Structure formats: structure tokens, C-alpha cells
Amino acid sequence: MKKKYIIAGNWKMNPQTVEEAKRIATQVKKVAIKTKKIETVACPPFVYAHLVNIADAFSLGAQDVHFEPSGSFTGEVSAEMLKSVGVKYVIVGHAERRKMGDTDETVAQKVGAVTGAGLQPILCVGEKERDSNGDYLGVLKNQIIASLGKLARKDVKQLVVAYEPLWAIGASSAMTPADVRETALFIKKVLSDTYGQEYALSVKILYGGSVTFKNAKDIVALGQVDGLLVGRESVNPEGFNLILKEIDGI
């Protein structure tokens, strides 16, 4: 089976109307359905999930989840709820959620809930700043290990890791492909040391942070990652479609 790249779009709290959400989904579907090398994942706000749950074009993703299966948690949704509406992937530990209070322990609980429901977590990790002496690697290692908690080895193959350095999110430019490749290899080593090489090699690594159609191909091809987690460009169907075309042409 040929390798498939994952291009996941995190819509965040956008767009503001159902009509605009329909337009984005419709426009992206026209290109996504024609790609041969890509699994396109759309992660809209919960209220728009039904608009992008189109099996022949997208895999449906969610932007967050609660770790409890049910109960008195107003405003939250469980992994089983997400599964029941067709969700396949769940973003966990995004920097914006961590900023709102998610700790590594909370993230680990969410990862466990997602894998327990048979879904695939897209675990977001990334350092706040990159120092010249390499201390950031220790920070990244500790975050990965803590965010996985006691994840069973058998569940590691469901895992996707999205490397999103905080300093690159919303920046004018992304990391260089060489730096992306170096960090992706480091993440694989951390996973290999923790779970064994066989399991670590099964984990797909995505990059996120100021991705555009201009840099997407180099990041994936030269950075040797398995795909992208796209933020602001994911609700710009013209730009997102160009990213899909670039990656499908690798």
C-alpha cells in the first residue's frame, strides 16, 4: 500500500456562519476527492461537523474532547459522542487549549479517552522557544512523555503527533525543512525509547506552524514528515486546495 500523507485542517473557531462553512467544505471537497496520496482531515467547530462528514472526500476530525465518558460537564463532548457522529481523528493538547488550562496530565487523560474509543489522537507538542544550546529538546521530550501518560503500547499505533513549535504559530515564516526533519527524528527517538522502535515507526509525524502552499511541499518532502496540521489556511479554501495539490504532487 502506498504511503498516504495526512493534511489536517484545524478550522478553530471559524467561520461565523453555516453558509460559509458549507462553502469551505464544498470548495475543498472538489480537490480533496481527486487526490491520490492524501488523507484530508477537516476539523471544524462541533456545530459544523455534519457539513464535512463526507466519507468520499474527508476524514472528520474534532478540535478537542473531554476525558470523561459522560456526566455533569456542561459544554463538553466525549470521545464516544464524537465517534457516534463519524469522527476519526481528535486534536489533543493544542497550544491554544494548553493556554486555556490543559496540563500534560489532562492531555494524557484525553489521549487515553480517544484511543479507548478507537479513535486516533493528533497529539500536539512543541516548545515555546528554541534556544541555541538545545535545551528545548529536553522540554519537548518531557512534554511528549508526560502527554502520553500511561498510554499502552498496543494503542501507540493509533497515535499521530503534530509538532507545532509555539514560536512558529502565526509567524511570518515556518521552520526550515532541515529543522523540521531534525525535530521529527528526535520525536521518533523519544517514542522509540519509550515504546520500542516497531511502535515508534508506526506513528505519523505532522508539522504545523505558518504552513502555506508556498512552503508546504518543502516541509513535507525535505522535512520528511507525514503531513501537515494547517491552521489559518484551512478556512481559506483556495489556499488549502493549493496545499493539497502541492503535497499530492510529491
Q: What would the CATH topology be? A: TIM Barrel
Unreliable segments of 5+ consecutive residues: none
Encode the helix/strand succession as letters. EHEHEHEHHEHEHHEHEH
Secondary structure: number of strands? 8
Task: Give the CA-based shape.
Answer: globular
Percentage of residues in DSSP E strands: 15-25%
> Which oligomerization state do the chains in this entry correspond to?
single chain
Average pLDDT across residues?
Answer: 94
What radius of gyration results from the CA coordinates?
17 Å
The helix content, as a percent range, equals 25-40%
| SSE class | alpha/beta
Which CATH top level class fits?
Alpha Beta
What order do the helices and strands come in, and which of them pair?
Blueprint: E1 5-10, H1 18-32, E2 38-43, H2 49-52, E3 59-62, H3 79-84, E4 87-92, H4 95-99, H5 104-116, E5 120-125, H6 135-148, E6 160-163, H7 177-195, H8 197-201, E7 204-207, H9 216-221, E8 227-230, H10 237-248
Parallel strand pairs: 1-2, 1-8, 2-3, 3-4, 4-5, 5-6, 6-7, 7-8
Helix pairs in contact: 1-10, 5-6, 6-7
Explain this structure.
It is built from ten helices and eight strands. The chain is α/β, with parallel strands linked by helices and 250 residues long. The chain has a single domain (5-248), classed as Alpha-Beta Barrel (TIM Barrel), CATH 3.20.20. Helix 6 (135-148) links the parallel strand 5 (120-125) and strand 6. The radius of gyration is 17 Å and the shape is globular.
